[in-house]
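quick one, 202 residues, struct below
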Amino acid sequence: MPSQLARKKPALIALCIALAMVGGLLTYFGMSGNGQVSVLVVKTDLARGAVIGSGDLTTIDVVQKSAGEAVPADRSSTVIGQKALVDLPEGSLVTSKNVGESLGVKTGTSVVGVGLASSQAPSRPLQAGDRVRIIRTPTQGATADLNTPPISGVVDSTSLDDVKGLIIVDVVVSTDDAPKVVAWSASGNAGLILDPLTEEGK
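---
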């Protein structure tokens, strides 16, 4: 006649199998919740205001729960052509907060585009955040008007007009000064001086 222990063995085995299955399922779902996702990072240092190209991006895998607002790798097309809103060191995660269409325009300021010939701007490349002064240059053959005060501004971005051979500098200036800068630029009478950063701008 089977002993009591022998009768209990099948039940114990079944219980162990059930516990093992439950443990396996818990482990599976726990790992699934912490699965990895591929996100975008910058592979070179990008200065604030730099336009992001496909060559500036690469991907890394991170734990899904820690991805936060990082842009998924399959959405790279939404990032290309946008601007770095802050300085992005190599390896920085690309997020919805640090890239965008523009650096933003504060109340009381305007962004104006200044078209400059090579002789009207420094040869040194301009970067977003550079402090500049825009001056009214004389027309050919005229005497310079040194009584017109320069207009201070901050560089927002730069680009090249290959058709006209001009450097286009988007500059943030006061709203009151914006019409003057536009008029000077439209007539080809705008020059740009690069100034050092103030202590606050360092």
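Residues 4-33 form the longest helix (30 residues).
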